[in-house]
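Review form for a predicted model. The reviewer records the input and the model, then writes brief findings.
Reviewer: anonymous (R2)
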Amino acid sequence: MSPLVEFKNQASIVVFGASGDLAKKKTYPALFGLFCHGELPATVKIIGFARSKMTEEEYKKRISEHFKISENDTQGQEFKTKFLELCSYISAPYDSDEGYVELEKQIDDFDAHHSHDKTQRLFYLALPPSAFITVAKQLKKNVHPREKGHAKLIVEKPFGHDLKSARELQASLAPLWSEDELYRIDHYLGKEMVKNLLVMRFGNEILGAAWNKNHIRSIQITFKEPFGTEGRGGYFDDIGMIRDVIQNHLLQVLTLLTMERPVSNDPEAVRDEKVKVLKAFDTDISLDDDVLLGQYTRSADGTKPAYLDDETVKAGSKCVTYAAIGMQIHNERWEGVPIVLRAGKALDEGKVEIRIQFKQVAKGLFTDVNRNELVMRIQPNEAVYMKLNNKTPGLSLATTTSELDLTYANRYSKDFWIPEAYESLIRDCLLGNHANFVRDDELEISWKLFTPLLEKIEAADGPTPFLYPYGSRGPLEGPEFMKKHGYVKSESNYQWPLTRPSEEKSKI
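Model under review:
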């Protein structure tokens, strides 16, 4: 397959934590996907680095477990064989020079066999934050390019636990790696529908004209998972839903949704506007008025466990597995528009979507039509649809709610490649495109926004979350909370889509 872009240099890609779940399930499948579509440099070497003792054969078997190919896919199997030929493995501690000296030797040997003027070294830290600084120091000391070429360091979230720890992490990384070399990856910025936000907003005059407080009544961004912590409660107990999803993923989506038009498509111009709108967010989030917290209990039929049934969870934990947070932006475009970010585990379905509800039309001609809504479904099954009022066909003068529907699966050929989030972001990194990565000042402001709230929630006398059954739509207080923050549920029994019953229905 011919590449869509031309990579002008060879690359050595090193995956730290190569034996871990993140590397196995996300990083290597993404690299393989890029390889299959001709989106890696033609001259590339991939090296896994971890403490686990494995043979090359064991390593290659492990990293290929989640490649999306079947045994009968002849072409896919051929790509797999060729890809694995590019891969090698180093087993060594993260805190001693030995493994890094071997890594430098392998990369130097690879470079020596090619005549490119520039070499690129991409280091992907699929590691817990506790190992970031150790590995970053060793890489700078032993493997950073000395004469030619350049290096890039991808750091996975979480970027700290609060404002203090985020600052400490940044203060440790900054002397070693420049901001230009650092790529803080939030995989939601690589999702197709999230990357489409800038085009949707600024490439369509019909939307741009109505994208303000004069026409929009409320905004909500929803993240729903149909499963609980499932044995990971001990890990999740120290994080909670706000840190896990809202402070990073959903806030990133919201900044793209609400920022002003960048002066150009330069990555820094985009990130400048994200920072500007973040500075306009109201930092005074009231626990009583702006926050709804929940924790799941056993399912109604008793087949699914409560969060506290997990043996790894602390007894009596008040960890939040559901959170809805009302927010305000104080600027000319958004003043007075209520915004809700909500996320939960063990809910009735799995989806992530943006829902923008417009103001009610003037009364007189119409008295009972629903508000227009623009919905962008990020996952699953990407879609954009606009809920509009329409005359019921036939002799009736009654109105009904229908939709303008752009469902990707219906609009685009099945052969149309939509890259996974990690595929898209690794490609961006190889091309030096920072637009979809988190900048240091952006990270600072986001933690300033949420740290005071987290401190109130996690205080000894902090609030007790409302309980909701596993598999439900969340706390019973949810609809009233949404109503208080500007959202009006349609009075009709509208369901989307009406004519494709096999598709998943939208539950407002």
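Findings: The longest strand covers residues 216-224.
Further findings: Residues 1-6, 498-508 have pLDDT under 50 and may be disordered.
Recommendation: see findings above.
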